[in-house]
Design a protein that fits this description.
2 strands, 58% helix, single chain, globular, two-stranded antiparallel sheet
């Protein structure tokens, strides 16, 4: 079992990766909160609205996401897309993550569930 310090580190890394994942999807098409929670659950991560919505709001406040409201089924839904700044940041993050992942995983056998990224 991980120590409290270990759990905090795992959570910090997880939340950073969630931010990158949100940027990735918001760069491809507009996204909304429940959709992102379902997407993360598909990957095995159960993230609640009390964590996701503040994260989305902070990304918007920092200028990497922009939102627009739309009425869907009689309810107001907030959609998010990346800004130019968000797209540039995502490109920078992809390069840094790719380099780190390649190094951290270099001694591991290739995963069977997904092909390794080509250099």
């Amino acid at each position: 079992m991980a120590t409290l310090v270990g759990k905090k580190i795992v959570r910090d890394v997880f939340l950073a990766l969630v931010r990158v994942h949100v940027l990735h999807h918001a760069a491809k098409e507009r996204v909304f909160g429940v959709e992102m929670m379902e997407e993360l659950k598909r990957h095995g991560y159960d993230i609640g609205p009390g964590t996701l919505y503040p994260l989305l709001h902070s990304l918007e406040e920092s200028g990497v996401l922009v939102s627009a409201q739309e009425v869907v089924g009689g309810k107001v839904r907030k959609y998010y897309r990346t800004t130019r700044t968000g797209n540039a940041l995502l490109g920078e993050l992809r390069a840094k993550i790719g380099e780190l992942v390649d190094e951290v995983l270099e001694d591991l056998p290739p995963r069977k569930s997904a092909p390794r990224r080509k250099k």
